[in-house]
Amino acid sequence: MNNTVVIGSQWGDEGKAKITDLLASKADLVIRYQGGCNAGHTVVVDGVTYKFHMIPSGILYRNTVCFIGAGTVIHPESFENEVNEFKALGVDFKNLKISPLATITMPYHIEIDGANEQCSGKNKIGTTKKGIGPTYTDKMARISLKIQDLYSYEALEQKLDRILFVKNKELEKVYGVDVYTKDCLMSLCERYAELFKPYVCFDWQELLNNYKNKTILFEGAQGVMLDVDYGTYPYVTSSNPIGGGASVGSGYGPTMIDKVIGVAKAYVTRVGDGPFVTELTDDVGDKIRNIGREFGVTTGRPRRCGWFDAVTMKYAVLVGGITSVALTKIDVLDEFEEVKICVAYKDCRNDNVYKSYPTDVFIHKYLEPIYETHQGWKTSLSGIKNYNDLPVNAKKYIKRLEKLIQAPVEIISVGPDREQTIFVK
Ligand code: IMP
Question: 370 pLDDT exceeds 90?
Answer without folding.
Answer: yes
